[in-house]
Amino acid sequence: MSTPIVEAIDIEKTLGEGAGRVQALRGVSLTLKGGEMTLLMGPSGSGKTTLLSILGCMLTPTRGTVRLRGETTTGASAEGLARLRRSHVGFVFQSYHLFPTLTALENVRLVLDVRGERGEDTRERAAAALTTVGLSHKHHAFPRELSGGEQQRVAIARAVVGRTSAILADEPTASLDSENGQAIMTVLAEIAKDPERAVLVVTHDPRTLPFADRIVRIEDGRIVGEDAGARRAIVTTEPEVPAHVP
Ligand SMILES: Nc1ncnc2c1ncn2[C@@H]1O[C@H](COP(=O)(O)OP(=O)(O)OP(=O)(O)O)[C@@H](O)[C@H]1O
């Protein structure tokens, strides 16, 4: 049986103040298991980024529990959350977020440095992560010398180099053309074959569908359905829950 990497139980999140107060999540439960690629899809404003931020310990829920590899985040200090995040989570964003003055290798190695891992082997680990994403020939290139797809591959190498078990990607293909988008999804799907790793991709992009094990649909802060993706043979469609039932 595959291991639960991230478990979110009955998550609620209220954002903003006064008249701008929004209930972004209204009782969301979601488990990400090792060896799975999950797509999170839903309309703009439905709560996808809020949920990804809570799963990755960037944001704390108003109510509910998150467990990362069995460790609960409830009551953790900001420092405790940062430790959990560094140990277990790798993020990939639409706009890459690379340091422009560092080479590809240095961008990846920096993650290990931040984690206090400074041995000579960190260079080899960073190089191995770049090889995983097909960039063994671009160690010394600066982000401005790389295409968008290559920059995103550096960002993925950075997300996996720390041997984190949850890879959370927010619209990773949105800035890329079809070919590069496919290449990025192929790399993420390859990572998701590891039974010790779970990959969650927030996306609007229908081109990502063939890479999914599961497609989770969110509307108005609630999970409204789940379908088995093309990568999985067994169909596990759950009944749809109306979005507006209190
Ligand atoms: N800091 C904030 N203060 C107040 N409301 C917020 C804040 N951040 C997000 N929201 C609101 O919370 C809801 C969920 O936002 P979220 O960004 O999670 O949606 P999303 O599904 O990721 O949208 P998109 O696809 O457009 O990125 C939206 O109504 C949004 O306007």
TrEMBL record:
GO terms for cellular component: membrane protein complex; plasma membrane
Entry's family note: Belongs to the ABC transporter superfamily. Macrolide exporter (TC 3.A.1.122) family.
Phylogenetic placement of the source organism: Bacteria, Pseudomonadati, Pseudomonadota, Alphaproteobacteria, Hyphomicrobiales
SUPFAM superfamilies cross-referenced by the UniProt entry: P-loop containing nucleoside triphosphate hydrolases
Keywords for the protein's UniProt record, in alphabetical order: ATP-binding, Cell inner membrane, Cell membrane, Membrane, Nucleotide-binding, Translocase, Transport
Name listed for the protein in its UniProt record: ABC transporter ATP-binding protein
Domain ABC transporter: 6-245
GO-annotated molecular function: ATP binding; ATP hydrolysis activity; transmembrane transporter activity
PROSITE patterns: ABC_TRANSPORTER_1, ABC_TRANSPORTER_2
